[in-house]
Automatic annotation (TrEMBL):
InterPro entries: Sig_transdc_resp-reg_C-effctor (IPR016032), Tscrpt_reg_LuxR_C (IPR000792), WH-like_DNA-bd_sf (IPR036388). It comes from the Bacteria. Signal peptide: none annotated. Residues 11-76 form the HTH luxR-type domain. Pfam families: GerE. This is Helix-turn-helix transcriptional regulator. Gene3D superfamilies: Winged helix-like DNA-binding domain superfamily/Winged helix DNA-binding domain.
Amino acid sequence: MKTDTNRAIGRDPAFPALSDREIRCLQLVAEGMRSDEAANVLALSNNEVNQALIGAQEKLEASNLMHAVSLAMLIGMIDHADPYQPK
């Protein structure tokens, strides 16, 4: 499945809203965490984190998890700033 670029970067608000849990899980994955590490940080089960990531992937119509993270960054749902970069 190919993502429509205009839609992916927010020119068409057709993506369903992600839940706070889905956004937080995507953010932690974007920061390099595995789902079990994210589960530990969020005090959730690994299954709950995986379900949130699957839900986000489906809502964003992403072909895989990294695609979902990329789309979430493009549309501004998660922060793409490098936390280790000096300001």
